[in-house]
Structure formats: C-alpha cells, structure tokens
Amino acid sequence: MEKVAIIGVGQTKYERDKKETFAELVFEATSKALEDAGISKDDVDNIVSVSSDFWDGRTISSMAISDASNAYGKDITTVEGDGTFGVLYGMMRILSGSFGVTIVCAHHKGTESNMRGITNCAFDPLVERKLGIDAISSAALQARRYMNRYGVHEEQLALVSVKNHKNAMRNPLALLPMDISVEDVMNSRKIADPLKLLDCSPVTDGACTLVLAAEREAKRLSTSKKRVWLKGTGHCSDAFRLGDRDLSDTRALKDAAKRAYTMAGISDPRKEIAVAEVYDAFSHMELMWLEGLGFCEDGAAGEQMERGVFNSDGKLPVNPSGGRLSSHPVQVAGLAAMAECALQLRGEAEDRQLEDPQTALVHGINGMCGQSHCVWILGK
C-alpha cells in the first residue's frame, strides 16, 4: 500500500474572541501550510474541511470556506470530529488513487457558539436531552465513575492540569499558558462535581491546516526533513447512549489503539513511542485515555502522573503543546495535536522540542465522553 505523508503545517494563534471570520482563519492557516510545504495551491487536488454546521451556526459549513482553502474548481468535503477524523478521511481519499495532494483544514470559533446548547443536542432527544445534560455535566459523570471505580482522587486529576498549562508556557500559540499548582486547581471554581474550572478546557477560536501527500507526490514536492509519515491508524466507536456503556471503560479506545499499533508495527507502545498528544478536554480524560492507549494499567495513570512519567522530561512526554486544557478549538483540536507531533518529529517545536523523537502518537475523540476514538502513529 502506498504511504501518505504530512508535508505542510499551518496554524493560527489560539485565542478568545478572534475578530477574523471563519474564512479568514482558514485562509491564514492554509497559506502557512502551503508555504511550509513549499508548494502552491495548484499542486493540491482535494480539500477536506473539518467543520460543523452546529458550531458554525449555518448550513453546509465547508462551502463558506471553500475559497479560503483553495477549493475553487476542486473537490471539497466535510468531516465532523476533532481533526483526527479529517486526516483519516483525507488519507483514505489519497489511498483511493483519485488524489495526490490533500489539504485538511479545520476551523472553530467557540466564542461565537453556545457550547452547552450545542452539546446538549448531541444527546437522545426523547430522554437525555430533556435533562439538560451537556458536554460538561456528562464529563463530570464520567470523572466520578472513573474515580470511584479505581480509587483515583481529585489531586491526581489536578496534576494533569498543572502539567499541561505549564507545557503551554513554551507554546506561543496556546491560549492559557500558566504556572499553577495543584492547590490552584483544587481551589478553582466548581463547575460540575468533581470538575473545577481548571479541570476544564477553555472556549477557544482558531484554525489549523495540514497538507497530506501520497508517497509519489511527497517525494517529488518536499524534502525528506519535511515529510512525516502516517504509519498507522485505528478508530472505533462505543454505544451512543451513556446508559448503554460504562463511562470508565476504555474498550473502544483499546480497540482503536490496537489497530493503529498493528498497522504501524508497534509491539510495545511504552517503549516505542517517544511523544504523545492525547485528548484532554477535561483533566480526568487524559488519565483514562493513557490507560486505554496501553501506556499503563487501568487505574494506574494517576499514580504514574504523580511520579512524573508523563512530564516533558519523563519517560513519555504527553501533550508538550499544552494540550486541549490550554487551547480547545473543538473541531480543530485533533488537527492541532497532529501538527504538534509533526513539528516534534521534524525537530521544529522550538522551546518545547524534545530530544530527537522518532515516533509519535496522536489521539482524538468524537461524541460525548469519548464515544468514538481515532488513534494515529506518526514517524520520520
């Protein structure tokens, strides 16, 4: 099977209340990605837009950014998710043999959206939606179930927030770089028990674009230093209704990770992966997903966090970008995580650069409480 590479990366700064329109954000990120790849829009034959009519407040959200993403006269399609799913579709379109170079762009303006109202609409309209449940309250249910099942305590959750906000201090694009303590997290305003303000990701605006290329095109258009290869991927969904699954069970993620590891030839992820960007919209999620990805036993991530295993100078640096806790443009999140890992593998992550990583993992989700997972293995 032909390989696919990331050959260009472009991002806006992630902020609140950005004045630019959706199209202006996409144009900035896409222009940077094309410049980074050293190609022109004429080299691109396919565009995948990661966007959502709900979040945009309009129908056919990809159409309004078609010119900004250089889709005029070309094919453009829409994918919903956190960005990792957009790369999945972009890769599949390349592997179909119909396209050679694909732009995957994602945009999100959380400050122009009603997050509680939109995420409430994700639930069953006959029962769950009427309860007023949303992304935050459902995450709180998940956090409590996880804590009760494995004896995890709130201070261990707080360590995730402390680590990721500190990592963001080395990322000039992050929204919330902060040097905070466990006490600061514990004393922050309660949002939905047991989650506090600093356990939750911030409302964020921004855009990100990646340029993907089939192997034949990647070698023709880019230098070897610019190429980051998509080595393996896996995706899997769990039940839709919250009551039909144990919210502390990471079975869907374990299945997705197994598929990605098998495709990439990874037999021991703890030893073979040098850096990971893991979805952390809420602090407890990073702990759960690290367990589901096989980096530690179920229920053990909190203790590993206390030992500094997942710090930037630990055995497995996790979320050196600052993660979603520091910047969370919902539709963009997974694409930004892939951009971070691509930059790490290229040795271009500036002040947060790790020492010569060879293999990286990216994880994204879709649906409430991680209903669906997408896992990527990237390599030089």
From TrEMBL:
Entries under InterPro entries matching the protein: Thiolase, Thiolase-like, Thiolase_C_2, Thiolase_N
Organism: Candidatus Solincola sediminis
Domain Thiolase C-terminal: 245-380
Keyword Ribosomal protein: no
GO MF entry, a single one: acyltransferase activity, transferring groups other than amino-acyl groups
The keyword Membrane belongs to this UniProt entry's keyword annotation: no
Domain Thiolase N-terminal: start-end pairs: 4-215
Protein name as catalogued: Propanoyl-CoA acyltransferase
Domain of life per record: Bacteria
Key words of the record: Acyltransferase, Transferase
PANTHER family (alphabetical): ACETYL-COA C-ACETYLTRANSFERASE (PTHR42870), NON-SPECIFIC LIPID-TRANSFER PROTEIN-LIKE 2 (PTHR42870:SF1)
